[in-house]
Prior knowledge:
The protein is mainly alpha-helical. It has helices at about 1-25, 35-45, 45-50, 60-75, 75-80, 95, 100-110, 125-135, 145-155. Helix 7 (about 100-110) packs across helix 8 (about 125-135).
Amino acid sequence: MKACAAALFVMVGFLGVSLAFGEQDKGPRYKYQNDALVYAEIAKAPERARAKSNPLEKDRDAIPGGQILFEQHCSECHGETGEGGKKGPSLRAPQVQSAAPGAIFWILTNGVVRRGMPVWSKLPEPQRWQLVSYIKSLSAAPDRAENSSSTAAKP
């Protein structure tokens, strides 16, 4: 009986510790944010897709249009400004920002279903290019530690 009680105590303690750590990780960041595999899908875009240039690259209305589409379709997973959310990684990451527009278009078109990224091929092609324009307009996200220290130092 004492062995069962001890085992139960250990299990409850382990569960409590697990829950406590889970509570600390409730931030808006995608839980695999630093996992290189998250961004490896971009490299899987075929050369033919990567070679495509954004036909809306010089269209000044493409970025605001893409932002509207992003807010409607993408922000739920990737965060309001693409910084990453609970379901999707940051689109401000260097791996995304340095990716060819055609590779991002390919990801939007084909999705990454096994990681929860839906296929957006039913979204008209010009709208997918607007999303590419908006995503490429996002700057790399500063480190959160830098943000807090720089704002704390200001009067």
